[in-house]
Design the sequence.
């Protein structure tokens, strides 16, 4: 985006573009995190299938966000999603109680972070429903927000199970 005066941004839709690109970066981080959770827990009978289902939904939600951006004529930043992927990879280096590999604490932390992202996604769908419902007919923004609420419920149950295993 070129440099504009702050008072020109709203008139030009710049704030919407920034907002949606910030959420695209967050969605990219969420996909990376969900994929890591899925892969690291695929052999767990209780957690594996639930995480695979949530991962598929998180991936679909990111694709929906891209379609929303296309419908609204918002270009996609290449830098923000790339920075999100880098940040997710960097986050793997934190101490988790094991020198190498995945630990029960890793799972707990990752579930908490994913929950935070899903709360943001739910707020995105509600904000768009409130401000751009006419422009986004056919996207069923309320249904997307309710799906995020369902994801939060399932993630909370997984989080409590992970807490029991880790703590």
Sequence:
């Amino acid at each position: 985006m070129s440099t504009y005066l702050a008072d020109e941004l709203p008139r030009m839709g710049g704030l919407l573009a920034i907002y949606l690109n910030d959420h695209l970066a967050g969605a990219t981080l969420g996909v990376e995190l969900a994929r890591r959770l899925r892969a690291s827990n695929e052999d767990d009978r209780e957690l594996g299938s639930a995480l695979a289902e949530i991962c598929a939904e998180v991936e679909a939600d990111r694709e929906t966000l891209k379609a929303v951006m296309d419908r609204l004529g918002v270009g996609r930043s290449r830098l923000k999603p790339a920075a999100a992927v880098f940040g997710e990879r960097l986050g793997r280096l934190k101490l988790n109680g094991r020198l190498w590999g995945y630990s029960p604490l890793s799972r707990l932390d990752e579930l908490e972070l994913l929950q935070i992202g899903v709360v943001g996604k739910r707020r995105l769908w509600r904000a768009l429903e409130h401000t751009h419902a006419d422009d986004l007919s056919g996207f069923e923004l309320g249904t997307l927000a309710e799906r995020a609420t369902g994801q939060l419920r399932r993630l909370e149950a997984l989080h409590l199970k992970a807490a029991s295993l880790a703590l």
